Amino acid sequence: MIILRRLVAALLFSLLAVQAHATALVPDTAAETEAATPAPEAGSIELSQDPGEDGRIEARLNDIFANVPSLAQVDVNVRRGVVILSGTVPDDAAAARAEAIAAGVEGVATVENGIERDVSVNLEEGIGGLGDRVQKFTRVLPLAGAALLIALLIAAFGYLIASFTGFWHRVAPNGFLAELIVSAIRFVFVILGIVIALDMIGAGALLGAVLGGAGVVGIALGFAMRDTVENYVASLMLSLRQPFRANDHVVIESHEGRVIRLTSRATVLMTLDGNHLRIPNSTVFKAVILNYTRNPQRRFDFELGVDADDDAEAARRLGRDTLGALAFVLNDPSPEVRITQVGDSNVILRFLGWVDQREADWHKAKSRSIAACKTALEEAGFALPEPIYRLRFDQRTMPLPFENVGEISGTKTSARPAVPEPATEPAPESTPSPAPAKTMLEEDVGPEDEIARMVEDERASDSDQAKDLLDSSRPVE
Predict the structure, then answer these.
(1) Angle at Cα 225 formed by Cα 221 and Cα 227, nearest 5°?
(2) d(CA 364, CA 234)
């Protein structure tokens, strides 16, 4: 009995000592957590506490944190209503959130937040995200395959339509336009297939971005390749207009020659000295084109001067009859001679005659006509003087007895006495009949254009002839 009493007394003493020690520790814990959480309001902490309340608080908080992914690594320890948090979270916001949750639980006196931020790399989460993307892509694969198949079928249908080249060449005015139509059909069907495929997989936003970007890129390329696009459009318009034929003698701006071919980029000429000349089609389309071959009748003209004292009208009639007597000069339109001006020492006559370029060469006809008219005028007694200039040193004095003969450019000048000129015989009253030399009339002036023959030979032997856009079956503009 005595032993039992001593054991009870010892047990009570131990409990009192433990209680005193715990009472001494509580103020220190409160001091440590005072900076972590705000002090509770006055009268909010109960004086008595249920012995099992700390365990319930700890279990409740662990259950809450376990269901929040960002707080799954937080550890909870509760002692006499004081919640001590530890562990790691991904960011500071998660730590503050854990502290707020703990402070909101009934029976919590204060919260000591010892949570640290996790700065390590979470490979599992990254791999899990990649796995989710792979899984999503795998689910989309059947739909993407169907969309790709439909796009290929649409593009194949477009290529099938474009493959009827014979039909498009019959429909289109020329081969260049036919090739352009075929390329446009292929392009349209390919773009249509891509649009439908993207719409099937729900990539409408991507489609809009692609089309918008393509529009911006197209505008930029249009400005950058303006000359190329202009030349391409000019080629198309020239192939439709057909402003000239192959082997036509043309003058394009200051370039003269015979047309070899019209390609999709340039017009190829052979100059009169036998050289190849390539002119961009954009220049040809905007240029003034002179075509000598289009009209077979072509007029030549030249000027001769007769002495001012001669009968200019008689010289005019003689020149007209001389031109009319030449076999290669056409009577319709009839030849004509015009008095154009009175010079310092002569009267200028302009001779006009027409030839048929299919029967006479224009340059030969002009050359023969000049020689025939000059000979006829000289044989009829008309003088063809050179310009005469008379110098006076002082207009208030009498003319010097000598005439200066020579050039005025500072070279040596010779002087000779003035000799009275013989009286000029008056021009004959009646116009003598033209009498051109027999050789002049019989000489061949037929067209012998070696350049035209060279062009024909090149067109016949050139492998690029299939690319010529000139079509002889279409009307010339």
Answers:
(1) 155
(2) 37
Residue with tokens 């044989």: 379
Could you identify the residue written with the tokens 């814990």?
A: 29
Query: What are residue 144's phi and psi, to 5 degrees?
Result: -65, -40
| Amino acid in position 359 | E
Q: How far apart are CA 337 and CA 302, in angstroms?
A: 10
- Tokens in use for 449? 């254009």
Question: What is the Rg, in whole angstroms, of the alpha carbon atoms belonging to the chain?
Answer: 56
Name, in order, each residue with C-beta under 8 angstroms of 329's C-beta and a sequence gap of 6 or more.
323, 335, 353, 354, 355, 365, 369
How many angstroms separate the CA atoms of 463 and 353, rounded?
Answer: 42
Structure tokens at 378: 């000289």
d(CA 136, CA 161): 38
The first and second tokens of residue 438, run together, are 């027999």
Q: In this prediction, what percent of the chain has a pLDDT beyond 70?
A: 72
Q: Is residue 111 a contact partner of residue 85, using CB atoms and an 8 Å limit?
A: yes
Burial class (CB in 10 A: 0-12, 13-18, 19+), 321: middle
Helix (H, G, I), strand (E, B) or coil at 345: coil
Q: Is the pTM of this model over 0.70?
A: no
Write the pLDDT tens digit of every residue in 204-239: 667 777 677 777 777 777 777 777 778 888 888 888
- 40: its two tokens: 């509770």
Beta strands 266-271 and 276-280, pairing class: antiparallel
Strand residue runs (E) in 80-200: 82-89, 110-113, 116-117
C-alpha torsion 243→249→252→256, nearest 10: 170
Residue whose tokens read 């016949």 = 460
Q: Chain-centre distance of CA 430, in angstroms?
A: 72
pLDDT classification of 408: cutoffs 50, 70, 90: very low
Q: Is 428:380 a contact under the CB 8 Å cutoff?
A: yes
* Top-ranked range on mean pLDDT: pick from 95-104, 141-150, 317-326: 317-326
Q: Dmax over Cα atoms in the chain, in whole Å?
A: 191
Q: What is the mean pLDDT of residues 119-123?
A: 58
Tokens of 211: 């089309």
What stretch of H or E contains 338? strand 336-342
Closest to 372 in 3D by CA, of 306, 468, 443, 425: 443
Q: Which amino acid is at 198?
A: L
If you average pLDDT over every residue of the chain, what do you get? Answer: 76
Provide DSSP, 221-242: HHHHTHHHHHHHHHHHHHHHH-
Residues in the chain: 477
